[in-house]
Amino acid sequence: MKANIFVTLKREVLDPQGDAVRRSLGTLGFKEVKSARVGKLIELELDGNDKASADAHIQSMCEKLLANPVIEDFRYEIVD
Amino acid sequence: MKANIFVTLKREVLDPQGDAVRRSLGTLGFKEVKSARVGKLIELELDGNDKASADAHIQSMCEKLLANPVIEDFRYEIVD
């Protein structure tokens, strides 16, 4: 089973890396970019086929290690 | 219009950050994690409503700035 976990900064947290990306894209001529935010994508390969159990475990992994709940949000999808 | 861009290391490129995540998850008791890879998620807000044009521009942004084609792959989705 595979899971994709998306960890993003909360809306109210400043993202200087995202701002740098937006400015650089503007410099390259992509003036249509209004904002850019940079987050993490964590791809996991998991043993087992029990989606409900995987779901609970991934939630727990995010809360314990993968995301910092003070400044980050997370979401995830389980694929095949 | 919003776009999510996913930048990941190519399969053949070593990912020490991903290995550290896998080991840490194992230490926390999540023994079912066989592998972990860490990539980037870049969320863009774009002016305009032309999906075909946005598609071409995002492809170009990835090739020119957002991904390093030597070691990284990218994919993206345009949402609303």
What does this molecule look like?
2 copies of one chain form a homodimer. The N and C termini of chain A lie close together (6 Å). Chain A has one domain (2-79): Mth169, Chain: A. The first copy, chain A, is elongated, with a radius of gyration of 16 Å. With 80 residues, chain A is α+β, with helices and mostly antiparallel strands. Chain A has a 3-stranded antiparallel β-sheet. Chain A has helices at residues 16-27, 51-66, and strands spanning 2-9, 33-46, 72-79. Chain A contains 2 helices and 3 strands. The longest helix of chain A has 16 residues, at 51-66. At the A-B interface, strand 1, helix 1, strand 2 and helix 2 of A face strand 1, helix 1, strand 2 and helix 2 of B.
Helicity range of chain A:
25-40%
Largest sheet of chain A: 3 strands, antiparallel
N-to-C SSE string of chain A, H for helix and E for strand: EHEHE
* CATH second-level architecture of chain A: 2-Layer Sandwich
CATH fold-level label of chain A = Mth169, Chain: A
Structure summary, number of beta strands of chain A: 3
Largest interface: A-B, 34 and 34 residues
Count, helices of chain A: 2
**What proportion of the residues of chain A form beta strands (DSSP E)?**
35-45%
On the 0 to 100 scale, the average pLDDT of chain A is: 97
Question: Which structural class should the secondary elements of chain A be placed in?
Answer: alpha+beta
Q: What gross morphology of chain A would you assign?
A: elongated
Distance between the termini of chain A: 6 Å
The whole-angstrom Rg of chain A is 16 Å
CATH secondary-structure class of chain A: Alpha Beta
Contiguous uncertain segments of 5+ residues of chain A:
none
